[in-house]
Design brief:
InterPro entries: FAD/NAD-bd_sf, FAD/NAD-binding_dom, NADH-Q_oxidoreductase, Pyridine_nucleo_diS_OxRdtase_N. The protein is built from eight helices and 25 strands. Helices cover 26% and strands 25% of the residues. It is of the alpha/beta class. The strands form eight sheets. Strands 5-2-1-9-21 form a five-stranded parallel beta sheet, covered by helices on one side. Among the domains are: 132 residues, 3-Layer(bba) Sandwich (FAD/NAD(P)-binding domain); 132 residues, 3-Layer(bba) Sandwich (FAD/NAD(P)-binding domain), CATH 3.50.50.60. Helix 1 crosses helix 7. It starts with a strand and ends in a 35-residue tail after the last helix.
Length: 399
Amino acid sequence: MKQNTLVLAGGGHTHALLLKALQKQPLPCQPVLLSSTRYTPYSGMLPGVIAGVYQPEEAHIDLKVLAENSGSEFIEDEITTLAADNNELTTAGGQTLKYDALSINTGSTQQRVIEGPDCISIKPVERFLPWLSETLQERLKQFERQSKTFNLVMVGGGAAGVEVAMALKERFRYSTALTIHIMTSNGVVPGHSRAVRQLVNNELAQKGIQVHTDFQVASVSDHCIHSLSGRQLPYDQVILATPACPAPWTAHSGLSTDRTGFIRVNPFLQSCSHDNVFACGDIAAFTETALARCGVYAVRQAPVLHQNLKAWLNGQALQPYRPQQQFLSLLSCANGRAIASRGAFRAKGSLIWLWKNWIDKRFMAQFPTPLYDSVGSDLLPYRKPLPAEKDQSLLNKKP
């Protein structure tokens, strides 16, 4: 009898935890993990990597080793097209993969609200980290030698934009040139309570990070960023931390999607149009409950996905995913402090950062990580040279 093929498209947090679960409870199928990168980042620790608190490899999961340990085939490639009606997808490398069941956990990218010179997005991380250590660092040195101000503009005031801005301020804390601006139309961390937003604003003010509210970015020209209301600000570098958007292939996949292109799923994490397709994490749009695109939800979806893939393959009933009403939010301030909130609870300080650090390291301890820094070796100035016999295939990868 032919064994069913399960393609796991994407190496997000849900699939990483699913692969971990398969080591103890295999599925009655042949799993194949397809990921655009071997080393997938853990979002909770990335601000710490940028700030210099963690080595880059501490915050990356080695998907190849994880997949092999789980009895899965690993393919390093990315989806270019999906034909859900034909149960097949094609990759950038020209492969065609047929599947009996498909689970999608490819995450999201960011809206390119503007295009212009010296404009980069914080995603994908494998481009952002090398740019940070190779390009931005050198440009800051040039401006310092010329005694000029370097205006770095962060477009987006959500948690990601705020954390990255504070991490950059910490990383380049000795720079005499760097000035950081955050442009936002709704204020910083708009999904949080007023009290939490005030804590964040106070922290940004203490760091000298300038927040420009009611600034909806419209365009850039001649190294000047313009708002819809006619305001403008000169810039030397723009970093996009804009709202999430899906990969373009979802629009032509045949799957049911919402108006922005995210894959519509029912409470069982199952596509609303194709019952052999599941989606989780950022790429999924729930029809009954609108969820924020947050790693906490993706992590909690893993056990349900595991159970439902097993049930679907065995022709059994599926179980619903029930998202938690409240969850703990931990925001790094990049200087040994963090902000915690859950419902009416809020706190800030060094003990909160120690708590966050413990949670993040406990999460990463479940997974294999790179044995050496293969994700941007010069991100930290004190990184020791690698032994010559080590594989350095990604060290010289340019953005």
